[in-house]
Amino acid sequence: MDQKENTVALNELESAKLLHSYGINAVKSILIDNCRKETLESTAAELGFPVVMKVVSNDILHKTDVGCVVLNVADRDAMECAYRVIMENAARNVPNAKIEGVVVQQMLPKGFEVLLGVSTDPQFGQVVMAGLGGILVELLQAVSMRLIPITREDALDMIAETPLQQACDGLRGVRYDREEIVEALLNLSRMVEANPDITEVDINPLLLYGDGRKATAVDAVVVRKTSCCTKNG
Fold first, then answer.
1. What would the pLDDT profile of 42-65 be if each residue is shown by its tens digit?
2. What residues contact 200, with CB distance under 8 A and at least 6 apart?
3. Is it the case that residue 74 has pLDDT exceeding 90?
4. 159 vs 161: CA distance, rounded Å
Protein backbone atom coordinates (compact mmCIF):
# COMPACT_ATOMS: atom_id res chain seq x y z
CA MET A 1 0.00 0.00 0.00
CA ASP A 2 1.28 3.50 -0.88
CA GLN A 3 0.36 6.72 0.90
CA LYS A 4 -1.21 9.25 -1.44
CA GLU A 5 -1.51 12.85 -0.27
CA ASN A 6 -4.57 14.88 -1.07
CA THR A 7 -5.72 18.22 0.23
CA VAL A 8 -8.98 19.48 1.68
CA ALA A 9 -10.12 23.08 2.09
CA LEU A 10 -11.73 23.93 5.41
CA ASN A 11 -14.99 25.83 5.11
CA GLU A 12 -15.31 29.43 6.30
CA LEU A 13 -16.36 28.51 9.82
CA GLU A 14 -13.63 25.91 10.27
CA SER A 15 -11.00 28.25 8.86
CA ALA A 16 -12.14 31.13 11.07
CA LYS A 17 -12.13 28.91 14.16
CA LEU A 18 -8.57 27.75 13.48
CA LEU A 19 -7.33 31.29 12.86
CA HIS A 20 -9.05 32.56 15.99
CA SER A 21 -7.42 29.84 18.08
CA TYR A 22 -4.03 31.28 17.08
CA GLY A 23 -4.90 34.88 17.84
CA ILE A 24 -6.06 36.05 14.41
CA ASN A 25 -9.38 37.85 14.75
CA ALA A 26 -11.99 36.60 12.27
CA VAL A 27 -15.43 37.93 11.36
CA LYS A 28 -18.28 36.46 13.39
CA SER A 29 -20.15 33.79 11.41
CA ILE A 30 -22.97 31.27 11.84
CA LEU A 31 -23.78 28.29 9.60
CA ILE A 32 -27.46 27.62 8.92
CA ASP A 33 -29.07 24.78 6.98
CA ASN A 34 -32.63 26.05 6.80
CA CYS A 35 -34.56 29.31 6.65
CA ARG A 36 -37.15 28.62 9.33
CA LYS A 37 -38.30 31.63 11.33
CA GLU A 38 -36.66 30.53 14.57
CA THR A 39 -33.32 29.85 12.83
CA LEU A 40 -33.26 33.25 11.18
CA GLU A 41 -34.34 35.08 14.33
CA SER A 42 -31.68 33.46 16.51
CA THR A 43 -29.02 34.14 13.87
CA ALA A 44 -30.07 37.77 13.55
CA ALA A 45 -30.07 38.18 17.34
CA GLU A 46 -26.49 36.86 17.47
CA LEU A 47 -25.04 38.82 14.54
CA GLY A 48 -27.23 41.88 14.03
CA PHE A 49 -27.63 43.55 10.63
CA PRO A 50 -26.45 43.98 7.94
CA VAL A 51 -25.03 40.56 7.13
CA VAL A 52 -23.46 38.71 4.22
CA MET A 53 -24.77 35.29 3.22
CA LYS A 54 -22.94 32.76 1.05
CA VAL A 55 -23.07 29.08 0.23
CA VAL A 56 -20.74 26.67 2.02
CA SER A 57 -19.51 23.96 -0.33
CA ASN A 58 -16.09 22.56 -1.17
CA ASP A 59 -17.45 22.05 -4.69
CA ILE A 60 -18.14 25.77 -5.24
CA LEU A 61 -14.94 27.81 -5.16
CA HIS A 62 -16.12 30.94 -6.97
CA LYS A 63 -19.35 31.60 -5.14
CA THR A 64 -20.11 35.02 -6.59
CA ASP A 65 -19.84 33.72 -10.16
CA VAL A 66 -22.73 31.29 -9.61
CA GLY A 67 -24.98 33.67 -7.67
CA CYS A 68 -24.29 32.18 -4.25
CA VAL A 69 -23.30 35.34 -2.36
CA VAL A 70 -25.72 38.03 -1.17
CA LEU A 71 -24.43 41.26 0.41
CA ASN A 72 -26.10 43.88 2.58
CA VAL A 73 -28.88 41.64 3.91
CA ALA A 74 -30.79 44.09 6.08
CA ASP A 75 -33.58 42.20 7.89
CA ARG A 76 -35.08 38.78 8.58
CA ASP A 77 -37.29 38.76 5.47
CA ALA A 78 -34.27 39.59 3.33
CA MET A 79 -32.37 36.75 5.03
CA GLU A 80 -35.07 34.27 4.05
CA CYS A 81 -35.07 35.55 0.47
CA ALA A 82 -31.26 35.42 0.27
CA TYR A 83 -31.16 31.86 1.61
CA ARG A 84 -33.64 30.66 -1.01
CA VAL A 85 -31.85 32.49 -3.84
CA ILE A 86 -28.48 31.03 -2.84
CA MET A 87 -29.78 27.48 -2.63
CA GLU A 88 -31.70 27.79 -5.91
CA ASN A 89 -28.67 29.22 -7.74
CA ALA A 90 -26.43 26.48 -6.34
CA ALA A 91 -28.85 23.77 -7.48
CA ARG A 92 -29.23 25.31 -10.92
CA ASN A 93 -25.63 26.33 -11.64
CA VAL A 94 -23.68 23.59 -9.80
CA PRO A 95 -26.20 20.75 -9.61
CA ASN A 96 -23.77 18.10 -8.37
CA ALA A 97 -22.25 20.21 -5.59
CA LYS A 98 -22.47 18.97 -2.02
CA ILE A 99 -23.96 21.83 0.01
CA GLU A 100 -23.20 22.11 3.73
CA GLY A 101 -25.47 25.10 4.22
CA VAL A 102 -25.29 28.88 4.13
CA VAL A 103 -22.88 30.90 6.25
CA VAL A 104 -24.17 34.18 7.65
CA GLN A 105 -21.49 36.74 8.53
CA GLN A 106 -21.45 40.17 10.03
CA MET A 107 -20.96 42.70 7.24
CA LEU A 108 -18.11 44.88 8.38
CA PRO A 109 -17.57 48.49 7.34
CA LYS A 110 -14.88 49.20 4.78
CA GLY A 111 -11.31 49.33 5.99
CA PHE A 112 -7.80 49.09 4.59
CA GLU A 113 -7.45 45.69 2.91
CA VAL A 114 -4.40 43.53 3.62
CA LEU A 115 -3.55 40.15 2.11
CA LEU A 116 -1.99 37.50 4.35
CA GLY A 117 -1.30 34.01 3.14
CA VAL A 118 0.70 30.83 3.16
CA SER A 119 1.80 28.71 0.22
CA THR A 120 3.99 25.62 -0.06
CA ASP A 121 7.04 25.72 -2.27
CA PRO A 122 7.97 22.21 -3.50
CA GLN A 123 11.65 22.85 -2.79
CA PHE A 124 11.74 25.15 0.24
CA GLY A 125 8.51 24.35 2.08
CA GLN A 126 5.97 26.68 3.65
CA VAL A 127 6.15 30.38 2.85
CA VAL A 128 4.22 33.22 4.48
CA MET A 129 3.24 36.27 2.44
CA ALA A 130 1.81 39.75 2.99
CA GLY A 131 0.74 42.60 0.73
CA LEU A 132 -2.12 44.75 -0.42
CA GLY A 133 -5.46 42.97 -0.27
CA GLY A 134 -8.66 42.98 -2.29
CA ILE A 135 -8.34 43.20 -6.06
CA LEU A 136 -5.11 45.20 -5.69
CA VAL A 137 -3.13 42.04 -5.05
CA GLU A 138 -3.88 40.89 -8.59
CA LEU A 139 -3.36 44.31 -10.16
CA LEU A 140 -0.12 45.27 -8.41
CA GLN A 141 1.26 41.92 -7.24
CA ALA A 142 2.84 43.85 -4.36
CA VAL A 143 3.57 40.89 -2.10
CA SER A 144 6.52 40.04 0.15
CA MET A 145 7.39 36.46 1.18
CA ARG A 146 9.47 34.71 3.83
CA LEU A 147 10.11 31.09 4.76
CA ILE A 148 8.34 29.88 7.89
CA PRO A 149 9.11 30.30 10.74
CA ILE A 150 9.46 34.09 10.71
CA THR A 151 10.71 36.52 13.33
CA ARG A 152 9.41 39.94 14.28
CA GLU A 153 12.18 41.48 12.16
CA ASP A 154 11.05 39.38 9.20
CA ALA A 155 7.49 40.66 9.61
CA LEU A 156 8.67 44.29 9.78
CA ASP A 157 10.80 43.78 6.67
CA MET A 158 7.86 42.27 4.80
CA ILE A 159 5.78 45.34 5.56
CA ALA A 160 8.62 47.66 4.51
CA GLU A 161 8.95 45.85 1.16
CA THR A 162 5.32 46.54 0.18
CA PRO A 163 2.93 49.52 0.04
CA LEU A 164 1.74 48.44 3.49
CA GLN A 165 4.57 50.60 4.82
CA GLN A 166 2.95 53.74 3.41
CA ALA A 167 -0.40 52.84 4.98
CA CYS A 168 1.26 52.39 8.37
CA ASP A 169 3.11 55.71 8.03
CA GLY A 170 -0.12 57.51 7.11
CA LEU A 171 -2.51 57.35 4.16
CA ARG A 172 -4.98 60.16 3.46
CA GLY A 173 -4.79 61.31 7.01
CA VAL A 174 -5.26 57.84 8.54
CA ARG A 175 -2.49 55.80 10.15
CA TYR A 176 -2.94 52.04 10.32
CA ASP A 177 -1.40 50.01 13.12
CA ARG A 178 1.77 48.25 11.93
CA GLU A 179 1.70 46.07 15.04
CA GLU A 180 -1.59 44.49 13.97
CA ILE A 181 0.00 43.26 10.75
CA VAL A 182 3.14 42.09 12.57
CA GLU A 183 1.08 40.20 15.16
CA ALA A 184 -1.07 38.57 12.47
CA LEU A 185 1.99 37.45 10.50
CA LEU A 186 3.68 35.99 13.58
CA ASN A 187 0.49 34.21 14.60
CA LEU A 188 0.06 32.82 11.09
CA SER A 189 3.64 31.52 11.13
CA ARG A 190 3.07 29.99 14.56
CA MET A 191 -0.16 28.32 13.39
CA VAL A 192 1.57 26.68 10.43
CA GLU A 193 4.52 25.56 12.57
CA ALA A 194 2.08 23.85 14.93
CA ASN A 195 0.10 22.35 12.03
CA PRO A 196 2.62 21.21 9.38
CA ASP A 197 -0.18 19.61 7.36
CA ILE A 198 -1.36 23.10 6.34
CA THR A 199 -0.37 23.69 2.71
CA GLU A 200 -2.18 26.92 1.98
CA VAL A 201 -3.83 29.84 3.76
CA ASP A 202 -5.59 32.72 2.04
CA ILE A 203 -6.78 35.67 4.13
CA ASN A 204 -8.08 38.34 1.78
CA PRO A 205 -8.85 40.72 3.16
CA LEU A 206 -7.67 41.32 6.68
CA LEU A 207 -9.41 44.64 7.33
CA LEU A 208 -7.50 47.32 9.23
CA TYR A 209 -9.16 50.32 10.83
CA GLY A 210 -7.42 53.48 11.90
CA ASP A 211 -9.84 54.24 14.71
CA GLY A 212 -9.06 51.60 17.33
CA ARG A 213 -11.27 48.84 15.96
CA LYS A 214 -9.48 45.50 15.85
CA ALA A 215 -8.13 44.12 12.59
CA THR A 216 -10.43 41.38 11.32
CA ALA A 217 -10.07 38.62 8.75
CA VAL A 218 -13.15 38.66 6.52
CA ASP A 219 -12.55 35.96 3.92
CA ALA A 220 -10.24 33.14 4.95
CA VAL A 221 -9.55 29.66 3.60
CA VAL A 222 -7.17 27.08 5.09
CA VAL A 223 -6.10 24.05 3.06
CA ARG A 224 -4.69 20.94 4.77
CA LYS A 225 -3.10 17.69 3.57
CA THR A 226 -4.94 14.43 3.95
CA SER A 227 -3.50 10.98 3.36
CA CYS A 228 -5.13 7.92 1.89
CA CYS A 229 -3.86 4.47 1.05
CA THR A 230 -3.64 3.21 -2.52
CA LYS A 231 -2.94 -0.35 -3.62
CA ASN A 232 0.17 -1.16 -5.56
CA GLY A 233 -0.22 -2.75 -8.93
1. 999 999 999 999 999 988 978 999
2. 7, 117, 118, 119, 120, 221, 222, 223
3. yes
4. 5
| Cα 40 from Cα 54, distance rounded (Å) | 14
**Continuous segment of H or E residues that includes residue 120:** strand 112-121
C-alpha to C-alpha distances, 219 to 30, 45, 89, 231, nearest whole angstrom = 14, 22, 21, 38
If residue 125 lies in a helix (H) or strand (E), which one and from where to where?
A: strand 125-132
121 forms beta bridges with: 125
Residue 196 has pLDDT above 80, yes or no: yes
Q: What structural domains does the chain harbor?
A: 2-12+109-230 (3.30.470.20), 28-106 (3.30.1490.20)
The predicted pLDDT at position 215 comes to: 96
Q: Which run of H or of E encompasses 138?
A: helix 136-140
- Residue 198's pLDDT band (boundaries 50, 70, 90)? very high
What SS3 class is residue 109?
Answer: coil
Count of CB atoms within 10 A of residue 140's CB?
Answer: 12
Mean pLDDT value across the chain = 91
Cα angle at 199 between 114 and 64, to 5 degrees? 55
**pLDDT exceeds cutoff 60 at 139:** no
Measured N-to-C along each axis, helices 76-93 and 37-47 cross at an angle, to the nearest 10 degrees, of 110
Say if residue 84's pLDDT is above 80.
yes
